[in-house]
Hints:
Helices cover about 50% and strands about 20% of the residues of chain A. The first copy, chain A, is α/β, with parallel strands linked by helices. A six-stranded parallel sheet of chain A has the order 2-1-3-4-5-11, sandwiched between helices. A six-stranded mixed sheet of chain A has the order 7-6-8-9-10-12, with helices on both faces. The longest helix of chain A is centred in the C-terminal third of the chain and has 18 residues.
Amino acid sequence: MINSMNKKVTINDIATIANVAKSTVSRYLNGGSVSEHTRLKIDRIVAQYNYTPNTFAQSLKQQKNHTIGVIVPRLDSIAQSDMLRGLDDLNKDDTFLIVNAYQDAKRELAAIEKLHSQNVGGIILLTANLTDEIRDVLKASPLPIVIQGQDEPNFHRVIMDDLAAGKAVGQYIQTLAPKNVLLLNVDTKIDQAVGHDRFVGIKAALAKTPHQEIITDFKLDTAKADSYQAMQTDDFDLVIGATDRIVVGAMQSAFALKQHPKFIGFGQSFFSETVSPNLTSFEFNFYETGKQLYRLFLKVRDDKPVDVQRVIMNGHLVVRESTE
Amino acid sequence: MINSMNKKVTINDIATIANVAKSTVSRYLNGGSVSEHTRLKIDRIVAQYNYTPNTFAQSLKQQKNHTIGVIVPRLDSIAQSDMLRGLDDLNKDDTFLIVNAYQDAKRELAAIEKLHSQNVGGIILLTANLTDEIRDVLKASPLPIVIQGQDEPNFHRVIMDDLAAGKAVGQYIQTLAPKNVLLLNVDTKIDQAVGHDRFVGIKAALAKTPHQEIITDFKLDTAKADSYQAMQTDDFDLVIGATDRIVVGAMQSAFALKQHPKFIGFGQSFFSETVSPNLTSFEFNFYETGKQLYRLFLKVRDDKPVDVQRVIMNGHLVVRESTE
DNA sequence: GTGTAATAAAGAACCGGTTCCGTAGTCACA
DNA sequence: TGTGACTACGGAACCGGTTCTTTATTACAC
Lengths: 324, 324
């Protein structure tokens, strides 16, 4: 419940009313030695006035705080929101300060600096790529930091096993025995894990199969335009995209051209089931990834491990209508 | 830039190094009267040590703070993330503490109470429905509060003009001259604005047209199952859903049954363009809504208006493939 | 009955800022 | 030269907590 008074009641008020020193109230709050009698008395008064300690004063005195800055590349993505839910569900005492970087390195850098000036107690960075500048700033930071999204040496991190994912997709491709494959990839400079790692196993599997690779980006419209061009000049019976979103763009191009290849994507279970045909996709468990991120963060913050921590998450291929 | 030292430098350190009183440094920081000479001196030292004031100490002393709690019903929605972007883009001095309520009234209530105990400077509540308990807590709060999503009397709010939206859709329906219409609605107890207001104009337009209304919920799977049942027993040439998500569920049922009615939805431009056929939908500008929310919040916080503020946002119908 | 330890509580210092108050110095004007 | 206004700045108090030190009280053992 919330006090309806306009002025916040402080520890001093409680102490005065209870006729004790404020240090006694503080001990009461933090489990120090307090007699049964005063404990009950303070109990009553605290309940009556709905007293809650001022977190600013606490953080100021204790020189630490329980606000963790979480920088996400975007919010309108199931992957991200699942990770955030994982964080939430494991959380007890911390507060997450979520900052959207809008997939922009400049904003990401600004966010990191702002979080520092806001005296957060640590940072969890979900990111697609780290610029040198960001790397430097993170290295200089005294805060506990964990990252997700890229396999950055020297940083505590949780990563997806994109190599294994590509391998699994590669194996599955062979059961489909395609004649001509279109690969829709992204620039490795934009995202190394996605652009390179995911495609290693796929390209290995396609060694003896005709295929064409084009570099597009993460946006639906770009993927649509780029794939349209490729499909106009060539016929494909299988399209593999670096993300589900990219594949959805390609689907629209294909249908516009009255073509009906098979499709395979990577990523968010969300898209997979809203498009028709439902999309065959290699899926990662981002919810569990969020939990692992939080566990790793706590370990880094509380145990201060000497060597760099690295947690690997894996996923599995879900076959749906688009490859039937 | 961030200081690489492990200990934070304080205003006292700066004052000592600069050989002035800390009150002088404070005045320097806040634009009080400081001579050119000392200004330059402190400038140099602040830059050298990367000093940033401790926000906890500031908030403690100033008895106010620039953290605004934002409670959202869900994060994996374009509407929500667009609103958040609107908030972000207008923001200068504030920090948004985003809390996900996971469309659960209990968590929403808990979030409101937690934000209070964290001493936020105000609350922006995006919500689908207010329980009596939440209403009471909000009324008792001394904080500036604005809400979005429901037309709640007695609260400062930004709302969507769902009545006008339904009217516009109603007019459009008549140009389609449908024979049998399926309406997929939600319980007005779950969402009054969506469940009732959006359908007033639609039902008026269908006064002389055969139609069936079923109550489903906001989830894709539920909508899919509910619409499947209806479509099995009856043939529809137009399906109107309370949200785009609901319509996507219905699309999947229709295609599974080899039916190809026209579809109209409400809401997020996201879905509309990822599904095929692209969805005709009444769209609201959530980005602009976010901006209006923030403006309204500032007005409420800073000007403390006596009478309840109410801002109405409107949108427009976007015709796409699904009604061609 | 006295010495000692344990417990309960008070009091003061401190965290890092902002702000109020007082004062010294400068300048202008009568 | 004296008065008033203004600027620059130092010192102290304060915000609301936590924590360390000190003191009072009680209990227990010898």
